[in-house]
Input
Amino acid sequence: MGREFTALFDEWSESYDRTVAGEDVEYREVFAGYDRILEAVAERVSGTVVEFGVGTGNLTEKLLKVSEKVFGIEPSEGMRREVLKRGLPIKLLDGDFLEFPQLPVRIDAIVSTYAFHHLTDAEKERAIALYSSLLAPGGRVVFADTSFASAEERQEIEQSALDAGFLNLYQDLRTEYYTSLEILNKLFMEQGFTVSFTRLNRYVWLLEAVKLG
Ligand SMILES: C[S@@+](CC[C@H](N)C(=O)[O-])C[C@H]1O[C@@H](n2cnc3c(N)ncnc32)[C@H](O)[C@@H]1O
Output
């Protein structure tokens, strides 16, 4: 579910790593400190980890240094092809945030970078309820993604994309399902998590949610 962006990611898969390296000026600020953002997620997890929206496998590579086992779930065939080229020792599955093959083991953590905004807020609610049912107390969800601290901040960021003539970025901000910290906090708390947020660049916030007992 929430797979309406898959064709776009199939097309983007071969050049995606050049975008995150800052080649595309429109997205440079979104990906500022990309490597550090991925590390901030990886250093907060251990054990058996499920990663959603794997992309080309950049976070996966870091997770493999700190985890026992990584299950990668990715709906785009183009992106999965890029991950396979890297030969990473993970179990890579066709699936998405809401629908994926049954995982045969206990899960310690669920992670994702730059991807949860592909779900509408109603889909996010369903996904978080599902993760709450999969994790034991102490299990965690760690996401890094564009989110907004307030309605004013959202407006300011959209306006500055327009002022800079970054029309692709502006279009993304207006049409994908970026949400607020307030909504994320509420959705996770309702499913029995404690939540904290840390800003990682102008766009990206780290969300760390720990399942209560
Ligand atoms: C901007 S890329 C991020 C890739 C990688 N996580 C990173 O940080 O570079 C978004 C990824 O999410 C995937 N994606 C899109 N919709 C998704 C969904 N509903 N469920 C899971 N992944 C999704 C895309 O195919 C793409 O690989």
Q: What stands out?
A: The pocket of S-adenosylmethionine is lined by residues 2-3, 5-6, 9, 20, 52-55, 58-59, 74-76, 79, 96-97, 113-115, 118-119 (CB under 6 Å). The two ends are 29 Å apart (CA to CA). DSSP finds nine helices and eight strands in the chain.
